[in-house]
Amino acid sequence: MRRLFLIPLLFVSASFGADTNLQSKGVAVVIGGKQIVVKREIPSTCANLEANPQNAWGDGFAANNVPPECKKSFVATMGKISPIKIDGVETYGELETLEFLTLVSQNPKEYILVDSRTKSWFDTGTIPLAVNMPFIHFEQPQKFPKEFENHLSMLGVVKKGSKYDFTNAKKALFFCNGIWCGQSPRAIAALVKMGYPKNKILWYRGGMQDWRSVSFPDYTY
Known about the structure:
The chain is α/β, with parallel strands linked by helices. It has helices at 22-25, 53-56, 94-106, 119-122, 135-139, 145-154, 183-194, 207-213, and strands at 4-7, 27-31, 34-38, 57-59, 72-74, 90-92, 111-115, 131-132, 158-160, 163-165, 171-175, 201-204. The termini are far apart.
């Protein structure tokens, strides 16, 4: 059996996975006496590929003999891979998200599914029952005051003077395009900074790419 040795190229903290620079700098491993560097390999022709809805979604990723309806395709070079966890926030997968849809459907006063992407992404299709709250509205509320206040109201947050009351804040599940998408983590970070309870925030890390990859339906409003 071949033995594999890990040789860190840089210091990694105890919270392994949080250092997103590892994906580009790489980690050296020795397999069968040969050292290779494991890192994200993006061809030069893909380095400046614009991350937009038109480029992101397509079809046909599998062997040529596989029926078209059985396969999907996706761009593998976009964005920056997110860690598996956001500090203090529970990460969800597809089945947990599916179960969460039941909670949203049965009790919308306590649960909400939030698509954190900008509208151009949202308009390409989203998870059923999701509401669109672009991350930028939370990051820059002074530029989007009406949208910001509307989002907080939908989340069950009440403004009292210059402060916000999170007593009745809903349990909210956030998502965006995929593990390479930073829009939902940024929305979560902005809300946590405001005081939104972490135990009422959930994160579907896989987002639309994972959702579609396993053939769950999406919805266009």
